[in-house]
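Q: Two folds, back to back.
A: First:
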Amino acid sequence: MQAAYLTTTFFPPMGPIVQRDLHLSQLVVTGRLIAYAVFLLGGVVAGLLLARRWPVAVLPAAAVLILIGLVPEAFAPSLGMLLVGTFVTGLGGGLMVGAAFAVAARSCSPMKVMSGLAGAIVLSLVVGWVATLVLATAFSWRLAFLAALPVALLVLAGLVVGEIVVLVRRPAPAARA
């Protein structure tokens, strides 16, 4: 639920700190939030559609997109680099949520999946807000993005290991005569 954690970076206390450090206007900050939301929602739709066809490939690809996007966000010297990271993490986070829903809906009822995802998102929002509060006010807003990197790496590693296990346990296709 990295997408939910990253959503907390737009709001106080971290949002105004980023705005001040990069000398951004309120209009630009609002535009960045809208762009993130558009890419996040587009990623959710894409994740739902792609995970039906390629469930094994979408989740790691989404985790890689989040990792790639976190780096420019953490080291952004200006608005341009911050927007690049915002677009990439928004798309990756949306893909992750959509694909996770599509994959989980195969084994459970959609209502159970929705309630589980909603709980995870709310928990991530609360933890994300507290983490950004502590990291951005005590140290630097950049550390809040850097702190998400190890989590994203663990998610990617877990997905890769899990998919290797699934592929190893899958029965071999029948030989053609």
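A: Second:
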Amino acid sequence: MKRPLAALVTLAVAVRALAAATGDVYVDEAWTWVVSRQPLLQVLAWNRREDVPPLNYFIWHPLSVAFHSAFILRLPSVLAGAAVVAVVYRMGEQFLSKSQASWAALLVAVLYPFWLIDSEIRHYALLTLGCVRFLQLAMEGRTKGWEAPILAIAVGSLHHSALLPFGAILLAALCYREWLTAAVSGLGVGVTGAWIVYTLTDPQASYRTREAVSYTGLWLLPRMPADMLGLPALFGFHAIPDGLAWALVGVFLLLVGLGCRALQRRTAIYLGFYALLPLAGLALFAHVHLLYYQNRYYETFAPVLFLLLVAGSGARPWVWLPVVLANLGVCAAYPTSPWLWNQQWAPIAHFVEAREKPEDTIVMYVPFNMVAFDYYYDEGRSTFFLAEGAVGVTPRPGHPAQAMIVPASLTPDFDRSLGTGHVFLVLNQGVAPERERILEWFNPRFGIVDQLETRTIGWDAVQVMELTRLPSK
């Protein structure tokens, strides 16, 4: 390995490992943990309902069964994210220049959104690695061997969003009548499409997409350049000013145009299609409410976009050095700044453990919050979140006998089910105004014994309240 590449990969591993060793496991990560530790056939059944292929959970299955360590569970993402840096460098070295390759790889290595996503128990780093490696093979004309078809099948079985990059590569290959590359990338499209059809045949599929459209969508897309550069962390995660967001959109478009103009036409077609068509697909799907936009969806094509941006800027250090230094500053602050994390669940679980009695009840409003609570509560040995999204309990001696979700209708039956012990009510700001409705119901009936609130960038706050029943009036 050449010295610049070795240094870049080492830096990428270091910043991702630092994040993996410090941030709390949050809800989406805990979902990977709770599903992947189930028997493999049950994983397949769960994933049909969750709308995504199962390979991600198969990969994490042995780790989730053998370990209860966030760092170990995050290692596949850490290593895959560092490998993406290596692939970007090699592509830049071959199709741009060595200096441009170094700057593009450095951006991918240190930008806050990328190392944060690459330090999670999730599929995005693996998906990005598979896609950019397949693009590299396609551009080098090396899709004849075994690696490209295996990548197409594997990546197509990781997540339905693989449809977009494989589709972009397919169109680029058709432009140059590279039939073998088109066929193999078409295999990736077909595998992904087959999984989509399989999940949609479940009558309860797509429920998360329909619910999520209500709070996010197309209006977030102009913020994408600012998000990619890690600017929200520098602004304290307040809204990026509209003027700055749109100015960055203009700068990105200008640099992409200059980058495509500076490259050979075939190189520009492959890189441009891969970097831009998935973005257009996200915009279209968000507009027609088939898919909701979230920042992490751009990770798959953003490393290639940075190749074009660096090509357009001519790899001038004064353009990218301030961005690199600012994001390294965020990385240095991350271990001691929990507000940079997605969510904090360890303090919530430990608060309950320190105060609970067998007759007590744990109550949550959002069912999927239970998986993050489960991860830290009793070190993952007591399970409240059961199959099919139900909440039950496999209790251990000395722990509460029941956990439940706040029902849609707060009836006398629900009141009686809370029993006579203390209630640990767990809420987050993201459920407002339902949060206010729930508190209005509890306040006349229960008094607060103690409470704890954790604040992060994910859902503004997670709050647990220890409640005791008030005397009847």
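Q: And?
A: Residues 70-95 form the longest helix (26 residues).
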